[in-house]
Amino acid sequence: MSFVPVLLATDALLWLLVAAVSAYAWYCSRHEHLAAPWGRVFRSPAAIGSAVVLAAYLLVGLADSLHFRPALERKDPKMPIAYSVDVQSLLDLAMSHLRGRAEKTYSAPLATRSFAKEQIERPDGKFERDFPRLRYGGAHLEDESARAGDIAAKALSGLAAAVVLWALIALALRPLRRRFPDVPWYAALVALATILALAGPVFCIATSYHVLGTDKVGHDIVYLALKSVRTSIVIGTITTLVLLPLGVALGIMAGYFKGWVDDAIQYLYTTLNSIPSVLLIAAAVLMLQVFLDKNADWFTTAAQRADMRLLCLCAILGLTSWTGLARLLRGESLKLSELEYIQAAHAFGVSNVRILLRHILPNVAHIVIITLVLDFSGFVLTEAVLSYIGVGVDPSTTSFGTMINAARFEMARDPMVWWSLAAAFVFMLVLVLAANLLADAVRDGFDPRVRIGEAGVAAPLKA
Amino acid sequence: MSAYIIRRILYTIPILIGVNLLTFLLFFIVNTPDDMARMQLGSKRVTPEAIEKWKTEYGYDRPLLWNGKAEGLEKATGTIFFEKSVKLFTFSFGAAEADKRDIANEIKTRMWPSLALAIPVFLVGLAVNITFALFLAFFRATYLDFSGVVLCVAMMSVSTLFYIIGGQYLVSKLWHLVPISGYDAGLDAAKFLALPVVIGVISSFGSSGRLYRTLFVEEMGKDYVRTARAKGLAETTVLFGHVLKNAMIPILTGVVVVIPTLFLGSLIAESFFGIPGLGSYTIDAIQAQDFAVVRAMVFIGSVLYIIGLLLTDISYTFVDPRIRLQ
User: Which residues have a Cβ under 8 Å from the Cβ of B191 and sit 6 or more positions away?
Assistant: First the structure.
């Protein structure tokens, strides 16, 4: 099958970030003093467990960030190759059995029959109102009563595959375990086992059922939830690309130069801060909508247009949320600039730029890292709220927010359609919880002040 | 003190001007009024007459910054900038674009349901979170403390939307305790407000509870606490008499600043529960792309926030006599 690769803007930035983080990790591993705090972080079982969970999410997100347009089938081999306007990703390819098989409308998890009654024609020619069989969910079953056994058999085979895969990964980790004996590897293996024990059966059952049911237009919920992961990851990470330069540069400049520079920067962030952030984001996104509407001819496919909106949403979120980081860094560099080593650097005639980059920046890096990790989960939750209000991602982009928004009207149905809401919430909860736990460990590992505070906690409590 | 307050009030003027310029930039420079008209009128092939008509109707037919055709003072005042941005300073917001109702009037009537929801959430939430945090701090470094922190982290990882939808399903649909949504004037409002208040408290519980616990525990590691214990004070006296008072300073920073913004109400909760407050007004305006209302709310929101900052600074002097306002 021939195809043409499509590089969406967010794909490029996401891969750029992956490269940057890898470079940082490599650099850290070469420098003992940079590696030490990370060593402390990963001595916590919660941190390493959530790192494994986040890695699984990241894997899904990155697989969904390699896009291409497949070639359309040609009737005549002499015709030039035409490419589909439907932009697909590697994840779509792996999930093609879920992607193509849409039912008519809602169906419950693992159901073989539709959720709504319909007129069906019986073999004898009469019409009757009943729940019709699904087009794909359990369609291979002759007798529907065999469903439970069939699902159990598929789940077992999935579990078996998961056990094999887990054992292989555990074996592959052995050199790492020998190299870093301090790290509680059992936590990583437990987290991995949990993920695989869930993913294996789901993958096997999904070959012929809708494990979490289908939504209003019949799309498989597992597929939608997995597609939403990328949106969350993009919002959580690319936003920092805007936030980081603004927050760091303005923050340390305000603290270091003082005087009118400080006044100007403080004025800037007080002004930005004083506008309620949801309103500012909403206003900016409304304007963005008008702007994208005006320039609709910039984009060749709908996916590129939706992607541009996602990117702009990240930029808007970044532009409205750098103030917190800037304020923290201003305070810290204000303190640092009074210290002797900075004054010594002054006395030696080191230039301001050099002092900022070599003496201030490395000493506030821990604050930057803690803030970035902490902000991630906040952005993921914000996306859901914004999409609910209608100023989030493009309606055609799958995200947890759009899933919740589409599903919340179904609360009123009886029996209730709970599965797409539940799937979105559980996927989001696991992602945010893992990010929060990792952020906690990062804060404990990097912030010396907190560690001192906790030493006080550990002191015997005998009043 | 009064000199300080006057200076602080004067300092807010440039910030308000900044907010005003920023909203003007956002609403009128990124897109021209023509683009907005085209968006509001719907299709791409709108006649220029229709655009002109829309612009005249909503007052966007003037020049942006400088009206050269007008006479005298009108040169500066007969512009979009003056009509739509400068006039915000006098709190004359004009009429909404969607239904042509007077925005200032709407705000006056919708303020009360918002406050009826926001004030109980604020007060109950504060009481619950501080009590819980003190409880954890008292039992610090035990399994009770540990499981409390775990509970907080888990609760702050859940989306607010989930608390609202889950609460509505459980309490209203399954148990039929309170109506799903709606509002009524007077005391009847209580049955509509009960669930939103509880959910509001629950959704702030995780992050605030944990933050306050950290503040208390940090305060407990200080020297004066050790002295207090050394002179034989009971742990409860240390906790309530010394730690609570000192930890109030950082808590106040976060709390006082939000008091004025309570007027704005809660965007999400109000629209889910059908409470006719300012939050749902804003959401409706955003969804209807009513730029006039959004502009007005942005301006009011920043005014309230700036008042909150001012109140924070003043409240410091009451809780901490060491701080002198210069």
Answer: B178, B179
